[in-house]
Design a protein that fits this description.
With 185 residues, this protein is of the alpha+beta class. The strands form 2 sheets. The protein has a 4-stranded antiparallel sheet with strand order 3-4-6-5, covered by helices on one side. Strands 1-2 form a two-stranded antiparallel ribbon. The protein starts with a helix and ends with a helix.
Length: 185
């Protein structure tokens, strides 16, 4: 168990952070975010394509995203995909572009979203701690088998805890930022 295993541990923890970021990105705040549409797939002549590959998306004012398809024939497909996406947004198709307005969130809805974000952050923390637990078990087994010394075990354990703390702290920072975004009026 050497440096290569800590690279592996760190990679797994980074993937967890990316998963938390992706979950947070899918949670709507009161402000428009193009990232909300990352998971929206559009039927483009029989192929399901990410929205960003069939149209340009831009924020036009403080509360609207304008979606300009490369091919006007798929305006209706884009509209259907947004409605089916469970984002809670209503697209407006004017025959040229689609506009998606972001109405301000109610206080009650913001509080609900904060609870959801806290739950996602806790899921991320649990995933990080599970990675720590898995590797700690490996280290204990290696110590019992005589592959590593008691001192080496404690050094590995300390290094593992430092990585765990680092990535849990990163989740906490992401949570704090997302919570502020949601609560902004």
């Amino acid at each position: 168990m050497g440096k290569e295993s800590f690279k592996e541990i760190e990679e797994r923890m980074k993937k967890t952070i990316e998963a938390v970021k992706k979950e947070f990105q899918s949670i709507r705040t009161g402000k428009p975010s193009i990232g909300l549409f990352d998971e929206v797939k559009v039927n483009y002549y029989g192929n399901m394509m990410p929205l960003s590959q069939v149209a340009s998306l831009k924020i036009s004012d403080g509360r609207t995203i304008v979606i300009q398809p490369w091919d006007k024939n798929i305006l209706h497909e884009i509209e259907k995909s947004i409605l089916k996406s469970n984002l809670g947004l209503t697209p407006q198709n004017d025959g040229q572009v689609i506009r998606v307005n972001f109405p301000p969130l109610s206080e009650e809805r913001r509080k609900e979203l904060v609870k959801i974000v806290h739950k996602e952050a806790e899921n991320g923390r649990v995933a990080i701690r599970n990675i720590r637990r898995d590797y700690l078990e490996t280290f204990k087994k290696e110590k019992q088998e005589g592959k590593i010394s008691e001192d080496e075990f404690h050094r590995l354990q300390d290094e593992l805890q430092k990585l765990t703390d680092k990535y849990i702290n990163e989740i906490d920072k992401l949570l704090s930022t997302k919570e502020k975004e949601i609560m902004e009026v």
